[in-house]
Amino acid sequence: MSDPSAVLLKTPLNDAHRALKARMVDFGGWDMPVQYSGIIDEHNTVRTAAGLFDVSHMGEIEIKGPEALSLVNYVSTNNAAKLAIGQVHYAGLLYDHGGFVDDILVHKVADDSYFLCVNASNQDKDFEHIAAQNRWDCTVENAGPRYAQIAVQGPKALSILQKLTKTELSPIKYYWFTDGEVSGDWARIARTGYTGEDGFEIYVDPSLAEKRWNELMAAGEEFGIKPAGLGARNTLRMESGMALYGHEIDASISPLEAGLQWIVKFDKGDFLGRARLEEQKAAGLTRKLIGFEMCGRGIGRDGYEVRVAGAPAGWVTSGGPSPTLNKNIGMCYLPLDKAVPGTSIEVMVRNAPVEAVTIPIPFYKRAK
Questions:
Q1: What is the pLDDT of residues 189-224, one digit of tens each?
Q2: Which of 133, 137, 209, 247 reaches 20 to 30 Å from 326, CA-CA?
């Protein structure tokens, strides 16, 4: 539980959210907007036009120096040696026992410079974890205070952002970035996102954040842009089957169990957690993440017990209504032999079993 006496951290856009009459909540110690016009409205706007998100609470860690790659590759599961300059990949930051410290985005800025985007509530922990492993010729900086981050997501995102920059956006491929400009000021522009839609994250100086936000809102007016809060961000990422730290992944879950084996590169050499993951792979998994949809009336919420044939079998990691699919969906961990599409399960909703069936993840994929 959050400490009610604690002073909440604020992003540089806090005044803008309040001017828009956003509903604000305590999110991991940050005062953040959960919704403006409503979660379903914001969700549907991102799927059909564009939504604007304040993600300035996210953390940034910079690793620089002649041996920066060695440290990045040791603390993360993916192989940063394969990245080209300007490319981004998703990776796990693991403990020795194979569980997640966090999930991160690794950007290769130069041969001796890497930029990590990390989860808001984990940034100090992540920094300390990485810095403690640094035995190479490089430096690690907890750089979050130097950046504000704004995400414009949806099919109209490119058209909106292009109005504000001379940097050509079309050539930037998915999971690539460029250092360019927005409204004449330096910005790191990444074609990544957490919604399942096309879109961009822009990293700017915090002093310019509110100005950039207002310019994007104005540029997007003709396209139907709306500000979007954490509520829509959660339903969008859930439909797209994207993991959320503290739900699908945490210190007790390995990437193999979470269906993220594709971000684990055993052929690159040693990395934190490798030995435990190899043991787990050799022994065989005992549980795995799978999607489900509710058949009976009720919503499978985070933490609810899941039963198979009346016996406790797992738990819901994320669950709720899907505005795009118009059904109640979720993700859960089940024993390996049950974690296959088509398994009949019961989700315990207020101590009563409600019928559901397992289905593949992701639930939604945008048309390319």
A1: 999 999 999 999 999 999 999 999 999 999 999 999
A2: 247
